[in-house]
């Protein structure tokens, strides 16, 4: 039977490309999302992939959502923690709310999701947890103290959990994308994008969501079992860690 892969934020942007690539690789895919019902419906119509609505920032909702996915499709073998948001502001203007929303979604969301799939993965002696961090978690970014802190935290979480999962056949890895052409990045002022961001990328362009998705498929495979605790950069040469 096909393995089940659950992708958070899996109906739009990078997550949608990940969901489609995993489906093409033979997985039964469940795509979680937060609130954009129209995008989720269009995604299911296009791909046949089932979508599930809950917030990764809500522990109980994650537990209930994962239970539902497992009842519908079977045990989750691959978890891709991709859901993420930005609430950018220079630190002196950043509100506690902007800090909290980003930490709750981009960092605590990983705890909330992984905690409910972990016991089953340990029992079955197989699991793949793939966390989508960011180049800005590796290098820091002005205007993103909240986002950089959360994304750096994702890498620490990955390294700690990799050690705990190793003997149980569970690998835990992170991917740190650079700037990828999704709605999150298109929301950046075009002048800033063209004059300040793209010139910092040696390949001279934004990345494509599919370029992150192929890394997820690689890390999900059974024969990727010796790769754990790593952070794979996919950033067009913008930053080497
Ligand atoms: N784009 C980039 O350049 C870039 C670079 C580095 C890292 N990343 C990371 O890559 C991931 C995907 O980014 P993206 O650019 O594809 O973002 P996006 O286009 O804005 O899509 C975000 C997805 O996450 C979902 N989401 C947001 N908050 C959620 C929550 N609380 N619970 C469940 N789902 C939630 C959204 O659901 P709805 O559709 O319901 O809104 C949507 O499906 C994020 O973690 C981001 O930080 C992106």
UniProtKB/TrEMBL annotation:
GO terms for molecular function: acetoacetyl-CoA reductase activity. SUPFAM superfamilies: NAD(P)-binding Rossmann-fold domains (SSF51735). Residues 3-178 form the Ketoreductase domain. Keywords: Oxidoreductase. The keyword Oxidoreductase applies. Its EC number is 1.1.1.36. CDD domains: BKR_SDR_c. Pfam families: adh_short. NCBIfam families: AcAcCoA_reduct, PRK12824.1, PRK12826.1-2. Belongs to the short-chain dehydrogenases/reductases (SDR) family. This is Acetoacetyl-CoA reductase. It comes from Paracoccus onchidii. The gene is phbB.
